[in-house]
Amino acid sequence: MKPDFGNPLTRPRGEYSLKIEQVPGDDQVWVVWLLPSNEQLKSRGFALDETNASPCVIMTLDARNARFMIHPFYTAPNDDGSYTNKYTWLVGISFDWDDPTIPPDEHTVHSLVEAQPGEFIISLDYGLGIKQGYRSVMRALHDLTNEKVIYIGYGDATAGEFKVDRQKFSQICAEVKRIDSRAKKAENEVKDTTVFNALAEGAGKKARPFRLGRNEIRQLIQDFAADPDYRDPKAQKVLVTEIGKAARSIANQAPEATDKMVSDLQLSRLEGAVDEFRHRLGQNQSEPEWQKFFEADPFMLSFAFGYPIRLVNGQTYVGGRRIDGKGEKISDFLVKNSISSNAALIEIKKPSTPLLKPSPYRDRVFAPHDELAGGITQVLDQRYHFVSNFGQHLKDNEWWGENALADFDVDCVLIVGTMPQDKDQRRSFQLFRKNSHGVRIFTFDEVFRQLEQILGYLKSDGE
Predict the structure, then answer these.
(1) Are residues 48 and 127 in the same domain?
(2) 241 and 289 share a domain?
(3) How far is residue 40's CA from residue 136's CA, in Å, rounded to a whole number?
(4) Rounded mean pLDDT of 14-22?
(5) Phi, psi of 167 (to 5 degrees)
(6) Could you list the residue range(s) of the whole structural domain that residue 87 is in?
(7) What residue stretches are annotated with the Shedu protein SduA C-terminal domain (predicted)?
(8) DSSP for 160-218, written as a single string
(9) What angle do CA 82, 84, 89 make, to 5 degrees?
(10) Residue 463 parent element (H or E)
(11) Cα pseudo-dihedral 113, 118, 90, 101, rounded to 10
């Protein structure tokens, strides 16, 4: 049974609410419920006096077995007020609860959130769960077990749990981090050599070879080419993985064939993105669903900028926390200029978000809708808090060296709505966004059309 959070209008602005409820008939187990803040509700289109925003269970506390379990979720509520589970195949992730405090209170909840392994998100504002860099661990667990609870700790697994030893888990994540570091170095080497060779002739220099890879995949390719039955999805995945491992050697020995393969793969990926984008435009999808779509293919967001970008993080805490720990501001995407490292914030709405008020303000002149004006103010407020707290962000996130991030002049982008069909409305919208200094405003169909045009150009260029 869901707890009563009271009248939403009486809650302080910007604060989420927590409720800790004892499981009926068991004085050793509690569940923790969360209801989003008024700001979050309003940003998703809920009136503050509505009751259809559904609280969700974010944690289960079991004093009997000295365990606490997190239930990771996407923090933005869906249109129906519900939340989306980050791991639909799991009930939760369980950890050891040292010295259980009975009965637990909000301080207990926040202490347990911070007691998770360092590879996990330690903020309710980000919906809990494993950090982005270690998602391969969760994918492996999904393939390895049918159990609905992952237990990371030092004790024995109980019924329905799959145990990962806490020390073993840390070792695995450390190796993943080392792999990411090595992959980044390899990526930089390939980029440097590619650019050098492209410019070498003009400078009167000889092209330099790539370093040869050490992994041979000749037999795998022969098997793949000779046996049609070998071309199943698993075999294709293995082939692509092995080709990736030996990329340098292949590129050095067969550069023209490699260029053709890379071009075909990129074209196929873009075709898939365009098809999925087209399908989503025809659906009434929520903001969290659009956020997940862009996060899966962040290259699409680059069309909103006049420079190459790199995704730094998805939903990102930018500041605003008060002394009581509440009022935090969350941006949908934090990206950076991949050359200057200057930061940019992106706010994603929905294609159905209205851009203009339905009735003209004056003859043939339409005023911006509250949703559009609110979105602009929202992303500008995020920038204000991000820049104000930038020094602390640098310290907390280690944004230097290869991961450098700068706040020279933080860009703001708002992707919202669909271009009006009426000529007068289009003119009003264009005049408004052209003079909305500090925020780049794009509609969903504009981003889609840019993707379509690039796809058409690449197809014609390859014919």
Answers:
(1) yes
(2) no
(3) 30
(4) 77
(5) -65, -40
(6) 8-173
(7) 285-447
(8) TEEEEEHHHHHHHHHHHHHHHHHHHHHHHHHHHHHHHHHHHGGGT----PPPPPS---H
(9) 135
(10) none
(11) -30
Is 292 domain-assigned?
yes
Task: Tell whether 338 and 384 lie within a shared domain.
Answer: yes
- Using CA atoms, how far residue 378 sits from 254, 332, 359, 385, 386, in Å, is 51, 11, 24, 11, 12
Condensed to tens digits (0 to 9), the pLDDT of residues 250-277 reads: 666 666 666 666 666 667 777 888 888 8
What's this model's pTM, rounded to 2 decimal places?
0.48
Q: Is 145 helix (H, G, I), strand (E, B) or coil?
A: coil
- Do residues 18 and 166 share a domain? yes
Q: What's the pLDDT band for 92 if we cut at 50, 70, 90?
A: very high
Which 8-state DSSP code applies to residue 2? Answer: P
Contact 207, 197 (CB under 8 A): yes
Taking the chain, what is the end-to-end CA distance rounded to the nearest angstrom?
61
- To which residue do tokens 């023209």 refer? 256
Whether 155 and 200 map to the same domain: the answer is no
Structural domain total, the chain: 3
> How many residues comprise the chain?
463
The mean-pLDDT minimum among 25-34, 72-81, 216-225 falls in 216-225
Kindly state whether residues 163 and 188 are assigned to the same domain.
Answer: no
